[in-house]
Amino acid sequence: MTQRNWTKEELILAFNLYLKLPFGKMHRSNPDVIYLAALINRTPSSVAMRLSNYASIDPFHRARGIKGLPGGAKQCQPIWDEFEENREDLIFTSEQILANIENETIENKFSDALQNIDDFQGETKIREIKTRVNQNVFRQIVLSNYTGKCALSGIDISGLLVASHIIPWSVNEKERLNPENGICLSSLYDKAYDRGFIGITTKHKVLISDRIAKNSEKEYFNKYFSHLKGLQMNLPEKYYPKKEFLEYHLDEIFEK
Predict the structure, then answer these.
(1) What are the φ and ψ backbone dihedral angles of 174, each rounded to 5 degrees?
(2) I want to staple 44 with a disulfide (CB 3.0 to 4.6 A). Which of 26, 37, 184, 228 is the partner?
(3) Which residues share a beta bridge with 161?
(4) Cα angle value 56/96/124 (rounded, 5°)
């Protein structure tokens, strides 16, 4: 039987899945791998091998000495390079391809994220759709990276979790969708981190701002904040928070 070459769209779909899966779940028995394989008429083993190809060129895994499967990496490298160059376009394109192959529209697939956009028109509406879809996918990537648990509390209820940006969305467009710029936090700690009430050091330990610490006699402080001081955050499966991003937050946002 003649081996069918992978198309660029198929490689993009495999990369989309690679970003959303913890490293330990990139195997042929994973339901998500099986689902994508069925969509593109490939075997689960073939898709799992492509995921391992991406792992072999992922700088995070290479730094850890994990080689993945380098045999097909040459085909995957251009997709990775495109992601590094323009994450927003590639992530949105990957979701458009996925929706199309599922016989869905982007609007229907992301209907929850795209509520209240009727007032937008033309290019403004297109940009808003792209932004919201990408934010939704970023959340999927970050929550998966932290195995669906808050890095500080361990809460694993999806509706209470946020993909918290280290450098805010509005500050650095290039790093908006960088998985190293996201930490999975509960809604309370996301808000506290966003406002600079807590910080995280480059050693992944939690700092408490004076603004919060001055409430140490209050019951809520003892319940929700006292135990955080010096706490080692739970580290993700891959894509640790980037040192430079954590330093930016400590310098520019954290209330010392």
Answers:
(1) -65, -30
(2) 37
(3) 186
(4) 120
